[in-house]
């Protein structure tokens, strides 16, 4: 009984931090104990004179860690969209434990701040249209970001082929002008360049056929393994 009484603490001071925005220092039995965000302060009704036991403190600390991880994740998403796998990795690198990370991911997903299907579509459209990359390279990037293979497949199936060809054509026109030599050499070098950008053999063949104003015996068809070592 005496041990249980010793585990009860009284909040003797709630002090707003001068530098920490929306953060408060909590003093128990006249001694500093921990600091919390304003949301946690309100949730647990941490006011002067209230009593807390060890279980209360554990719940408060857990909620504080969850809130910190959640706010960190929100800031990351605010800078640019993230996949679930990316966000998990960043939170892990910041020292958060798996249960906290899973809680944050589930909460963000429930709020639709985190959606791997939408992320895959947005990433694919951006890379195809703005950065002029081919689907092979975009597929590799999505896989590196931990996107589920079915979502990657779906994103690839929904690529607008006209957009992809238009991007490849613009790159090819620039490369063609910058490349010296006979038509065959220019085609070979331009094709290799496009393949490195992730375009498929079918796209490269189509672009080169449109690029060459005078068809010749040097025309050739590009396959995805044409430039493999």
Describe it for me?
- This protein has three domains: 2-110, Orthogonal Bundle (Arc Repressor Mutant, subunit A); 116-157; 161-211.
- It has eleven helices and four strands.
- The chain has helices at 2-6, 38-43, 54-79, 84-93, 98-110, 116-130, 135-144, 149-157, 161-178, 183-196, 201-211, and strands spanning 9-16, 23-28, 31-37, 51-52.
- A four-stranded antiparallel sheet has the order 3-2-1-4.
- A hairpin with a 2-residue loop joins strand 2 (23-28) and strand 3 (31-37).
- The longest helix has 26 residues, at 54-79.
- Pfam families: RecX_HTH1 (PF21982), RecX_HTH2 (PF02631), RecX_HTH3 (PF21981).
- Modulates RecA activity.
Low-confidence sequence ranges: 1-5, 214-218
Q: Could you state the order of secondary-structure elements as H and E? A: HEEEHEHHHHHHHHH
Cα distance spanning the termini? 77 Å
Structural class by secondary-structure content: alpha+beta
DSSP summary: helix tally: 11
Q: Could you tell me the mean pLDDT?
A: 90
Helix content: 55-70%
Total number of strands? 4
CATH architecture annotation of the largest domain: Orthogonal Bundle
CATH level 1 name of the largest domain: Mainly Alpha
Number of domains: 3
> Radius of gyration from the CA trace?
28 Å
Strand content: 5-15%
What is the multimeric organization of the chains shown? single chain
Shape label: rod-shaped
- What is the makeup of the main sheet? 4 strands, antiparallel
Q: CATH-wise, what's the superfamily of the largest domain? A: Winged helix-like DNA-binding domain superfamily/Winged helix DNA-binding domain
CATH topology of the largest domain: Arc Repressor Mutant, subunit A
Spatial strand sequence of the major β-sheet: 3-2-1-4
Keywords: Cytoplasm
InterPro entries: RecX_HTH_1st (IPR053926), RecX_HTH_2nd (IPR053924), RecX_HTH_3rd (IPR053925), Regulatory_RecX (IPR003783), WH-like_DNA-bd_sf (IPR036388)
Subcellular location: Cytoplasm
Function: Modulates RecA activity.
